[in-house]
Protein 1
Amino acid sequence: MMAAGIFLASSCMHLLPDAQNNKALTEWGCEHTGEVFLAVHTRYHGDKKHCFRWANFFYGCGFLIVLLVEVLAHMLQRHYSKAHGQGQDECEALLVIDSRAAALDNLARATGYSHDQIETGEYGTRGARFEQMRSTANDKEDLHSHIHGIVKGNPILALVVFIALSFHSVMEGMGIGASSSPAWDILVAILAHKSLAAFALTLEFLQHNVSKKQLLITITIFSLMTPMGICFGRLLVDSNRATPAGGVCAALAGGTFLFVAIMEIIPQELQDPRFQLEKCTALLAGYGTMGMLSLWT
């Protein structure tokens, strides 16, 4: 919960103000205001200059982008899970057919009749059913094996989780890179959050029977996402000081931090009724500490 407080304070008191104080982004908002809107604004508010708040706009965009990525990831997971559930039902039906065919085989051996005698004699109806079920089982044998493999594990679901978590990591790294001052406190919060995310990602891959080699490669790539975001954010700030890129980057990262705090960490922690007071204390401590640090940064 302390990490949630740090993320929340970093979003509201560190990254958003950095974006709002970006002179290039502010001037860009003033220059790109529509002429029709300016005419209406001048009529009702006089000659006071109006600038669109791009920093706040991109701050909200950062929140919404991550939210949409999360929703899309959950939709894909539900879609594949539902498809696999139907596949498992087909497997169970095929197993029933196999068991019935085996029972009729036993009947043929017990009575001493051949299959031709069963089909044309006393057991004609049962013999016809026997041949039909045996044919169906043979035709579906490959499908049975294929579905069984899918039910056992599907790497696509793990890939969806990997993409969503990687997007989070890049956006959070951009917040550090675009920061106008040292952000060691934010780095500590990100490391704590990413360690839990890496653990969850590993469990997801193991659940879907991904090979150890693929798991190692994926975790290595995931560990590079946040440094990549830091480099990208720093590159925008260093090479484009006269443009709004640094402010946009900080605003997007701020929206991401807000999402992580209020949509991921806090709800999950409060679902457990134990230690509620201690959790709230940790949340306030993290928020208050970052608030105090903002006075000197």
Protein 2
Amino acid sequence: MCYKFCLITLSVLSCVLAVLSAAVDQSQLPSKSELVVEKQEDGQQPAVSVDVNAVPEQCHQPKETGRCFALFYRFAYNLDTQSCEEFIYGGCAGNSNNFDTKEQCEQVCQAKAAPTTSPSAAESATEQVTELTTEQ
């Protein structure tokens, strides 16, 4: 009798905890991922950089399977690789970095954070030569 009561109580408590954790406003939590940019040896900035502030906050969250045990293939944005990656979602809880398709993930997380490239020395020289030839 006590054993059945304990199992029912634990089951109800785990459901309540799952609902409560899903109700937590994820935007109020600090971001767990940080972008580290290292300078090159010659002191120049990297050729490609992404404005992390342009990436929506939901895309800063880590991949989170959730507490349930279903097997849904979903996509989440990885700030380190700057790409949308597939993961398995359990069906409940988790966070908002969870998209049905790779296209949805890219539309939300990469559209505003398009990489900006700084021109190389060769490209700059080519642009200067082009400007000189068109001015004549």
Protein 3
Amino acid sequence: MYINRNQYQERHHKCHPAQGQVLLLLDILRLRLGEKPLDEIFSGTGLFYQDLLMPNTLISAEQIFKFFKKAKRLYPQDDLPFLLGHRLWPGHYSQSAPLLSFSQNLAQVIDVFTRFGPELSPLLQPRFFCDNDHLYVQWIDAYGMEDLTDFMIQAHMSGFISCVRHLSQEHWPWQCYLSHKIKTPSHANVSVNLGQFEDKRPINVMRLPIAYMQQAFSSASPSLFFAHEKHLTPCLTQPGILFKIYDVLFNNIDKDLSLNDLANKFAMSPATLKRKIKQHNSHYKHLDDHAKLSIALYLFKEKAWENQQVASYLQFKDTANFRRAFKRWCGLTPSQWKQA
């Protein structure tokens, strides 16, 4: 099955409603910085306050990133991602946002995110998967945000936890694994907002015991959920190109897609795909390695597979090649990682 141009967005495409994360972050800045002139806040971002207030204004991921970087410079405090995260969801800037507020349980929340993810979380998109014991939420960079990644991971993980806590009225035992290092002065802030966490891990993922998936929310309103759902149109925004590529690689892991194979699926030449990925601050090998690493870590940690089993599943010719690749991915051999 080919993926056509209408099934993904690129970072320069103006496809995201302006009444979203930018305005949320703007109001946080104005609360923290006082009456700083709007012209000064928006300078160099390509955004204008009056345009953002217009209901049909669309902006690009590139513009959002520029504004976020400016916000971090103006307010360089470690609580900024959490201030933003707590305001992300249920939210208001997506046609599907009310469905989150009316959801009966976490399983229904996940269904809403799965169907409307590019609207609810356009820049850092979640992938959900379950086994017999746990729910996993992995966060994927959709557009190549570079040095904003750590900030956005903290905002989105804390935002998802905050949303579920708001709906359930309970604190649930989330475990958060972050790929970046948390500076010592920030540990307390991260712990308050994420709960149990580990930093310097190979991938950004959250985990929760599966029993919580069906636990009823006290705020649930099934009738309002189904009434609102009837009036929804299909997701108006397509996922970012890097998320789409990662999704294809992950779902075809048994085929070990080459750059040529991947380009063929996207109905373009390898050179064109390579150029597009580079424009989004990534490269094919990184995306392919990331997909394989995510699966390898799951099979090691949750399924207790041996090296040979994982190597075979990921289409490596032998275990030695897999060990070398694994060390390249996360700096440790499989045996070292299991003991860490």
Protein 4
Amino acid sequence: MDKQTPEEKLLKLIEDPAQAKAKPVALRKKFKFNFNPFSFLKFKSGLKPSVRVREELKNYFFNLKFINTCLLALSVIMTGFLIFDFIKSMPDLECLYVRELDGLASEIEATTYAKALPIQDYLSVFAKRDMFYFVKPKEGKAALKQKAAASITDNYKLVGIIWSKKPQAMIEDVKGNKTVLVNQGDDVGQARVSEILKDRVILVYQGSEIDLM
């Protein structure tokens, strides 16, 4: 190792100028950059895996499969949330059933029942009833009107019809033993001539229609 002081080195340079020229060359050789292409390729190949991983991640995160996976996961989460919310908000059926039974019990208690008749009353009714006697059904108002109209018009017979623009009818009064000539709107006894057709005369009595043929 060279342990010369700076003063000694300066003195040697003054005494031997050729040595001063040779030193820079030696220094340049010592600090010369050594370029090795194989080391650069090795460094570049070391960078390739990281670039490949970045490209794979980019392709994975931005493809259709990844989007479908995200949508499926989101739908599963939303379905689970809706099911949980439905179960949580569902009323207690047991409480509703007990409440309904309580309401029915109160209604039954508030209902008043008619007192049953003694058994003797039922027996007396059965004893008075004749099993071979059938009660005649009551006639309706329409049937009564039709019957009354038929009883009135039975006294009248249609003799003939004079057909024209204003047709006329000849009607025989059986009880009165006479024949009358009537137009539409005339009265025959308690009935009224409603319409005169080619084959019959329509009489109206208390809203019921009777045909004279």
